[in-house]
Amino acid sequence: EADIYQTPRYLVIGTGKKITLECSQTMGHDKMYWYQQDPGMELHLIHYSYGVNSTEKGDLSSESTVSRIRTEHFPLTLESARPSHTSQYLCASSDKSLQETQYFGPGTRLLVL
Amino acid sequence: KNQVEQSPQSLIILEGKNCTLQCNYTVSPFSNLRWYKQDTGRGPVSLTIMTFSENTKSNGRYTATLDADTKQSSLHITASQLSDSASYICVVSDRGSTLGRLYFGRGTQLTVWP
Fold first, then answer.
1. CA A41 from centroid of its chain's CA atoms
2. How far apart are the C-alpha atoms of A58 and A61, rounded to whole Å?
3. Given an 8 Å threshold on Cβ–Cβ distance, is B32 in contact with A101?
4. Are A17 and A111 in contact (CB under 8 A)?
């Protein structure tokens, strides 16, 4: 099992609240990713990072922001949560092999009331 | 448009039986194809990865095939177990950018009954 962790695993929060989803990995991977996944749907890339101080927006527009101050840490922040943000958020990191296999965390299930 | 289509959307089989899941893609240029297993409430875990020159790869009871000409892949599960119940996701990488963009299918939800 991959050494990538996400907290909290489940979060129920009211509209307008600021939240931060934590993601950390102990594998020393430079590349990290955030995906959003709704039930029965494919994963959508919302943010990625090539390394420290590098962050990029993914394919799916998201009101969230990310930071990468340390290699092992890639938190995602929503300044003002809305019901439309209700979803599962998956963090991943990839190694430097030719295939760059992505290792996923267990995910955070977010419910915004 | 680069897409990954999986079928069936869901599948129920009895424990001990075999099954085959399908993946068709239109991603180009093609780099590699992965099959992931995602248990309920968990993140996906890689099962197999195949590049253009590989047409079959096994991982225990899981055997993946790839036909790069027809852009089709299959995942065959032998002697299914209750723990095989999960969503199986086909992911194709295009290497069209420095990121090596991944295209995800919606997955096949497999349920194994005792």
1. 17
2. 7
3. no
4. no
Q: Which of A90-104, B31-45, B75-89 has the lowest mean pLDDT?
A: A90-104
Q: Is the pLDDT of residue B95 over 80?
A: no
Residue A79 DSSP one-character state: S
Joined together, the tokens standing for residue A84 give 């439309």
From the list B1, B21, B19, B16, the residue with the least C-alpha distance to B75 is: B21
Q: Which of B41, B46, B106 sits opposite A101 (nearest CB)?
A: B46
- CB atoms closer than 10 angstroms to residue B82: 10
User: pLDDT value at position A7?
Assistant: 96
> What are φ and ψ of residue A85, in 5° steps?
-85, -5
* Rounded average pLDDT over A80-93: 95
Mean predicted confidence (pLDDT) in B49-60 = 91
Number of helical H runs and strand E runs in chain A: 0, 11
Q: Is the CB of residue A74 less than 8 Å from the CB of residue A91?
A: yes
Average pLDDT over residues A83-93: 95
Is cis: bond before A83, omega within 30 of 0? Answer: no
Name the token pair of B22: 């399908």
CA A112 to chain centre: 17
Residue A48 buriedness (CB in 10 A; 0-12 / 13-18 / 19+): buried
B9 neighbourhood in chain A, CB within 8 Å = 40
A25-43 per-position pLDDT tens digit:
999 999 999 999 998 889 9
* Inter-chain CB pairs, A–B, below 8 Å: 50
Q: What is the pLDDT of residues B56-67, one digit of tens each?
A: 999 999 999 999
